[in-house]
Amino acid sequence: MTPDLITMKKRKKIAMIAHDNKKSAMLEWARFNRDLLSRHVLYATGTTGQILATELDLKIHCFSSGPLGGDQQVGAKIVEGDIDFIIFFWDPLEQQPHDVDVKALLRIAVVYNIPTACNLASADFIISSPLMEEDYGRIINIKPPRVGK
User: Fold this and answer.
1) Architecture of domain 4-130
2) Mean pLDDT within 44-71
3) Is 101 among the catalytic positions?
4) Residue among 71, 84, 99, 101 flagged as catalytic
């Protein structure tokens, strides 16, 4: 099977998600990177998106809150080819009511070879990469399910 090549354009489509205890860290990180983020298409789950849009005066396409299906909406956008990478500040010390949705989102991100930053350092590395300023061919190799034996 030949892998598919999906081109991330220079103007990236970025999903931003933060659990409650990480929203202030996300806001601080986004404020520091506001100028760079403003050159891309931004998506976010519910409250995170509202906070970022209000505080940073940025246009952000908001999904539902994570526990109300927002993480699943991000996953659907990945499958549709509408998300290039994820900045997801999740709280590893706090159990989430929607842990299964978070796991499903991270699984889809891996299946579709989506760069995913789960902490400040990885977000800094992704956002400062020279690949942010150019088209990039992301390879996905999804094998079709086997029918029968």
Assistant:
1) 3-Layer(aba) Sandwich (3.40)
2) 94
3) no
4) 71
